[in-house]
Amino acid sequence: MKLILTGFRQGAIALAFLMLGSAAWAQDFSKIAVVDYNTILKDYYKAKDSQKQMEDLAANYQKERNERDASLKAIVDSINGLQKDMQDPAISDAKKKEKENQLKAKGEEGQVKQREMMAFAQTASKILEDKRQRLTTELTEDVNKALSQVAKNKYNMVFVKPQIPSPGALIFSEGMDDVTSQVLGILNKDAPAGKKEDKKEEKK
User: Fold this and answer.
1) Is 18 helix (H, G, I), strand (E, B) or coil?
2) Which of 148, 135, 153 is CA-nearest to residue 186?
3) Tens of pLDDT along 155-188?
4) What are the sequence ranges of the domains in the chain?
5) How do residues 113-144 score in pLDDT, each as one tens digit?
6) 159 - beta bridge partners?
7) Of 2, 7, 39, 198, which residue is most buried, by most CB within 10 angstroms?
8) Cα–Cα distances in Å, from 56 out to 4, 73, 112, 119?
C-alpha cells in the first residue's frame, strides 16, 4: 500500500525542477543537475517511517471495518432467520407476532449499524488523507531543503527524474550531475543508529 509514496511522487513531479536565482534562465545552462526522487523515497529513513505509519493506520482501520462488517452480517443473518421462521405454516399467531417485533427491532438495529459504518468510513478516509498530506508535505520540505544545500552556488537548475516519462518531462540526462546520493547523505546524516544499520544491510 503506497499511500505516502504516491502523494510524494505527485508532489515531486508537480515541482518538476528547482530553479535557483531569478536570472537562472540567462545563466550557464551547463550548471544543471538531476535528482532521483524514487531513490530518495526508497532510501530516506523518514520516508520509510512515513510509509510504515500510513500502512499501520490503514491496517487498524481495516481491522475495525472488518469487525463492523461482521457485526452487521450477524444482524442480517438474524433477520433472515426470523423471516424464515415466520414463513413456517405451523407457527402460532402469538409466536408470529413475537417474531415480527424481533424482526422490526433487528431491522432498526441494522439501519443504525449501516449509518455508523458509513460515518466511520468517511472519518477514516479523511484522517488517512489528512495524515498522508501532512507527511508528504514534511518529506517534500526535507528533500527540497537538502536539495537546496547541494545546489546552492553550484547549479542553476535541478531536474527531477520522472518515474514515468511524460510530455515535457526530462527523459535524457547524460552529462548532467546526479545529486541524489548527496541529497540522501544530508537527509540520512541524523538517522537513528538502527536505521543506519538497516541501510547497511540493504546495500549488502
Assistant:
1) strand
2) 148
3) 888 888 766 655 555 555 567 788 999 999 999 9
4) 3-203
5) 999 999 999 999 999 999 999 999 999 999 99
6) 17, 34
7) 7
8) 12, 26, 28, 21
Cell triple for 114: 449501516
- Between CA 127 and CA 131 the distance in angstroms is 6
**Residue with more model confidence, 11 or 135:** 135
- Kindly state the cell numbers that stand for 149: 544545500
Place of cell 538497516: 198
Question: Are 72 and 106 within 8 A, CB to CB?
Answer: no
Judge contact between 13 and 162, C-beta under 8 A.
yes
Smallest CA-to-CA distance from 18 within 167, 160, 174 is with 160
Confidence (pTM): 0.71
The SS3 call for residue 173 is: coil
Could you tell me the three cell numbers for 194?
A: 538502527
Which run of H or E residues covers position 159? strand 157-160
Position 161 scores a pLDDT of 78
Give the DSSP letter string of 99-151: HHHHHHHHHHHHHHHHHHHHHHHHHHHHHHHHHHHHHHHHHHHHHHHHHHHHH
